[in-house]
Queue: 2 jobs
Job 1
Amino acid sequence: NCWGDLGGNAVGVTSITQLTYRTFGDMSRAISEIGEAGYEGVELFDGNLLDFEERYSALRSVLSDAGVTLVAAYSGANFIFEDILGEELARIERAAAAAAEVGAEHLVVGGGAKRANGRQPDDFKKLGAGLDKVVDIAKAAGLTAHYHPHLSTIVEGPEDVREIFKHTTIQFCPDTAHLAAAGGDPAQQVS
């Protein structure tokens, strides 16, 4: 999902509904090169996927020409701030609808903000509740939802990973590099 410099939509600083991930590479070229390398599928960041809004046929054509399918879309959110959660979920819902429209089967999310003053006692419960709402969003779009523990969130190390899955029904989407960098044994955590 990352082909070029990784970033976000700058307008997200003032508009939570527009705060998507994106890679600043040429997606048509990236998808083509991914197909040439022998891969059968690709995951796109929500921002790159939503760039094709109103012209999904163009994305379908790029995917078809490359011989790959859109397997998943990736989105993220803070999930723990109640006053913006609705805005975040609206954005995720838009990404899920786009992913389904192009034929994806999966919606992957990351997140769980670190607070400036440290984690609060109910942050895992808030994150879990938000992730369960993502499960519902994905299901409504015909997708399966997955959570991706990520460095710079409240779910980094092995204990955090174990803890969050006590609070949500979302499926696990491991990233072995993040799990290892956070001090975990990816093979043990996946099994």
Job 2
Amino acid sequence: EECSLWIQPFLHAAEFGCNKLPADPLLRSLIRQLHATADPRLPNWQIASRGLITHILSIVARLFAEQCDALGVSGRIAKTHRFASVVAHINQRLGDRIEAEELYRLAGLSHSRFSEAFRDAFGVGATRYIQVQRLKRAKRLLRSTELSVTEIAFMCGFGTISLFNTAFKKEVGASPTLYRRHGVPGFDA
């Protein structure tokens, strides 16, 4: 529970370029120690591992906060944290129809306040955010599965293959089939 509180701010780190932390010798040492400690044959391995994980997360959280402060994005990350339940809802339902009213309810905001606050936090409206997340998922599935393009389109919430192909090509600069075959530099999710 304590650790989960530290993890929340990392949700949107990649969106702000804060997803790569500087090297830290203490962190490296603790991770090696955790690897050696997490052995079920050792007595009290779970307690020792839990303590090390807590220490590791506290260091990662400090490094993350320092990097965000240096980049001047701490305020935006705090704003996105307010929408953690909304983002979780979106990610769980990317293949389904996502009702705007449910997003407003989860955020505890009216329609107009939600739209303004969401755009302020993420730099785009909720509709665009959802589409970008669907396209990121589609790119991952195209690269990592043998599912058909049609299956991926529907799994990612696009109502028709034509809509998926159009949105994908506009965003990525290549069709889903071409992307799967060759990838497109600079557009990986």
